[in-house]
Specification:
Four copies of one chain form a homotetramer. Chain A is an alpha+beta fold. Helices cover about 25% and strands about 20% of the residues of chain A. In chain A, the strands form six sheets. A five-stranded antiparallel beta sheet of chain A has the order 1-2-3-7-4, covered by helices on one side. In chain A, strands 9-8-10-16-11 form a five-stranded antiparallel beta sheet. Chain A has a two-stranded antiparallel ribbon with strand order 5-6. In chain A, strand 5 (about 70) and strand 6 (about 75) form a beta hairpin. In chain A, about 65% of the residues are buried. The interface between C and D is large, with 116 and 116 residues. Strand 11 of chain C pairs antiparallel with strand 11 (about 240-245) of chain D, so a sheet runs across the interface.
Chain lengths: ~350, ~350, ~350, ~350
């Protein structure tokens, strides 16, 4: 058991605070012999990096990852892979004002209720900065899954503005600063978020994930279900408040007939006529795409003052002036992909361990 | 690691198939000295038991639990508590017809894809029958939490019919066969489900959970978050496709101002002006009620034939004639409560272990 | 984490007290498709069963195991295997006298110091009776290892009387009541133990274990070492006070030259000129036989009165009159074999999971 | 589960190879509010550091530890503590000759059998260099245990030369380069090891550990026994081949009367007349000193050529010329202490979690 590790055979341990010298993680259990250098990880970190458009925080972090162990001559050795990212843009002064008061919607108050003290600089351990390590681990997980498995994500809603699913184009995702698969929605979000930013407010979002090429049989009854592990992994991302697999909450309104994914054989392969299940039945992958969605609350750091209290129990009003994402949901896309990749890699190894397949 | 265990310090391992001689579980890590007999568990099993109204399966199971270890003279000893429930109503003939074909929406096909074989009798390990053990474990978890913590659940939607939240009355929940907190909705559901049943169809549902009196500080960064563990636990219940904490998916549409729960001090205690967070910030409990919701898909066993395949790969049509719940979401209410209680009990012990509080 | 489980991919959870209705265990993670019935387990339980000679306790237990889950039509399904053994010879009156005082050398006092209460009947959870479940789990582990792996044990010392290693004959082990591989030592032990028994005293013992046919590569750096896991597993058997791998404590007196096992190739296979390492280098199996030894202290239940205290803190003298093994080390042989088999099975699956071999 | 982590509530994950840029570890689960800076750790690392006498390797490593996370203003925050030590004296050329052949007694061959490749520089992951992280983690564990618990170790045998237990003086341990508690033995060992070193040979050793002030109640039945966890932890140290608790292997030769530790009350406290048990009964601490011993094999790196094979399967002869400890057992003393401290800290938190004491 560990509070800061996840996975079992493919296991990630992370450490570090927003304003310490560095953050890092250890990926243990990676199969040996996989080609791995920093160049395999950096592109994923770059996708998550802040400051790439006016819609994310202007904090500048190089987020350059170093591999400190676990590889030799460019191949994984099967021993733990230590990943380290320097913190290069820590302006502790930004946070001095909030050291003695709790920011609403943040973990300031709960860390202190739990531990009796906290590192107030940039949210300390609860900072979204930690998600860089998840993304780095996810890049390693992708290597474990191999080229036949493709893990992708996209933003499908910002604030009240959802995309038009009929216009979905995966190719579009890399062509706008929102990871938006619907070109028609991009200008709507631009205008909306500019207004939100101007008002010192923030917006929530919904992210969709999909993994294609996942072999059937991953997952396990009953407390190692693939979808349950995925739900835990996604809900554990900062600011996430909801998770769906396949049809999700909409399944509640479907009839049994609408919900049943019919099966047939085509060219000797099992195929399904629909995918309400999201690629998972009884906690085990079917071979269809794994589909999931998760909801991110609006950034808690806003300019509008909100009632709060100080550490000594006096009334206070908190308005957060630092450099913040108006919509943290945008940068949650690569984080969600990474968590999905890690869960799949872990279950791939677990399945192979038990069944030999 | 284990595929059939959950929790860490308060840890539950379950075993058994729908049509084996019995099902059971082991609760390990329970604190010593708690008064515990079968009478503390049975009422919760009775709430989940089938056959109590025309809206649940007519299968008759006594679901009488026996404690085989871990107590002495009516007190827990700190050693593992073995729980056993005999299977008394196994009509294997009901299932003979489906041994060689895969029921759509069921785990038949994935168990076989994973393991190469399966126990087809009543769904084997994937049967919802296993949830009885979760409920039994949840009853023990409630003792660990103590009387100050109250864990409750209610059904808030069947098919497309949601309750009116303004009419919420916890007292009503025990007065109708749906665990419905809104008396005005009960006749709507009765009529709707009678029609569904008559048509041989099925309906989905949404369940709401609430835990009051939870002390602040439970949960842990970053991969032991209270809400993440809860999401995994709820998504792991049979047929669940979505989980929300607090405002859930609706949070995506809120502004930062709407989403921020303001804090103040009242009589020396920290209070919040709202609870969009669902009682959890940064993965750690705030002291507010823990609130969660989860969606259950419509029962996959329906009379309407759905296209499927046989084990040997031939086209087949499956209509399930056995005794099934038209809406498995109803009996998921006590199961959801149990999972919430288990997650809280585990985190209570984990928090005490690390911090001594 | 769990206090009553061991192993990771091949994981055993045990429960039960000496004088409860039954004891049992759950074997989780077993590969699917292995032929398994009670008949595969019972012979190993019979080897451990008391009352088979005048040198073990005269308590009579059928130790008949039942499989309650995890198999279908004689094959493992990959789901948890529940094992149950009824307690049929609980004479609680035997233990009434010691309910209020602590037996020296027993866990009576420590259970009460830890938990504040204990089940005094027959030692409760700390009874050696629990080792029956280890033996049953070990029988399943042997199936996982397959016929190419042979796990054997023998008694090599009782009290001060060690066997002559030069006379080792594995065939002899099944021909005497001591699991003794040296026929010349059998009469020595008979005479010695008869005298010990007559005096109401007890004797310690040393057991040697060997596993042949273990594939190379099992185990893992650095905290999943095969020999470290084995040492933990053997030290966890009741009354064990020492564990050795390969040359063990004698290695301390060897020179580097004496200790180095030379390597060469024979017929394309790697062979070693000696096995001081006990088949493990760097925590990973070499392909040589795994060899280990463990020491069992003399049975703590003796007729000679020993100074002790009562639960209320008064001086007391304890002489144990019940039916006890004069040398618990004898019946520890099948238990040690079982633990070795379980550790190997777990590492076989773990190795396969990570490396795919 | 993880191959490179140990402990449960107090959990240590280590990473790094002998000749990578650095080695490190993560201590997770540490209670909050403990004063901790590098100065609390460094003295223990200095005790283990090589090159401090002619009896250890002349490799020069500063072994300066840095804390990268988990503390704020000199106090632990309850979040993961990242520890990093730079590798400053990596002479890879020393090891070039052995990259293509397996050193007898080393893990070269098993790493390659397991993973299909290995990092040959200095033994890679299997290097004793990793034990620095254990020592650093042990220093943190000591803070968790508090000043009332004292964890100490001493060397009691080198090669065939054991100390005279009657002359034991803990104060002497810090006054000689061997951690020897018997001043009379120091010159014997000096002369012996000088001869061993001159011959290019090596020697084994036995280390004794003792923890005073350990509260009763730590440990758990049946697979979380304090002595079993300790045995696993000690056997997991590089080159260890045997572990004993209390009387250890000598217990096999004792009579029941000799082995029983009598109990009595003195000034309201439970006391034992002897400590054959080594402070543990039924896997749970009694309140007496925890005593353990472990045996270290002679250093495998010796000048005398030993038969071996190359990676391509040809016969080879290996003599290791690098800078090596003639007796690795010496520097194993602080490592053993650290492992004992870590096991105790973990069980302290586990006990508190379950029982609230």
């Amino acid at each position: 058991m560990s509070h800061n590790s996840f996975g079992h055979l493919f296991r990630v341990t992370s450490w570090g605070e927003s304003h310490g010298p560095s953050i890092g993680g250890v990926v243990d259990g990676c199969p040996p012999g996989l080609p791995l250098t920093e160049a395999d990880i950096q592109p994923f970190l770059d996708r998550r990096r802040p400051g790439q458009s006016r819609f994310t925080t202007q904090r500048q972090e190089a987020d350059a990852v170093r591999i400190l162990s676990g590889t030799y001559e460019g191949l994984t050795t099967g021993t733990p892979i230590s990943l380290l990212i320097e913190n290069t843009d820590q302006r502790s002064r930004d946070y001095g004002a909030i050291a003695d008061r709790y920011r609403p919607g943040h973990a300031d108050v709960t860390y202190e209720l739990k531990y009796g003290l906290r590192d107030p600089r940039g949210g300390g351990r609860s900072s979204a900065r930690e998600t860089a390590i998840r993304v780095a681990a996810g890049a390693v997980a992708r290597l474990v899954l191999g080229a036949a498995v493709q893990v992708r994500g996209a933003l499908v809603q910002i604030g009240p503005h959802a995309i038009d699913l009929a216009r979905w184009d995966w190719g579009e995702v890399t062509r706008n600063p929102f990871f938006c698969p619907d070109p028609g929605t991009v200008p709507v979000w631009e205008e909306y978020l500019d207004r939100v930013r101007k008002n010192g407010s923030s917006a929530g979002a919904i992210i969709a994930l999909q993994a294609d090429g996942v072999p059937p049989g991953l997952g396990a009854p009953l407390y190692g279900k693939l979808d349950a592990d995925l739900a835990g992994a996604l809900m554990g991302i900062n600011a996430v408040k909801g998770v769906e697999i396949g049809a999700g909450f909409a399944a509640a309104s479907l009839s049994g007939e609408e919900n049943a994914d019919p099966m047939s054989m085509q060219d000797g392969h099992l195929v399904f006529g629909s995918n309400q299940a999201g690629g998972v039945l009884g906690g085990i992958s079917t071979g269809q795409p794994i589909t999931a969605r998760f909801a991110v609350k609006p950034t808690s750091s806003i300019l509008t003052p909100v009632a709060s209290v100080t550490r000594s129990g006096e009334a206070a009003s908190v308005a957060t002036k630092g450099r913040h994402d108006p919509c943290v949901g945008i940068r949650a896309v690569p984080v969600g992909e990474a968590m999905l990749a890690c869960v799949l890699a872990d279950h791939l190894l677990r399945h192979r361990g038990q069944t030999g397949r």
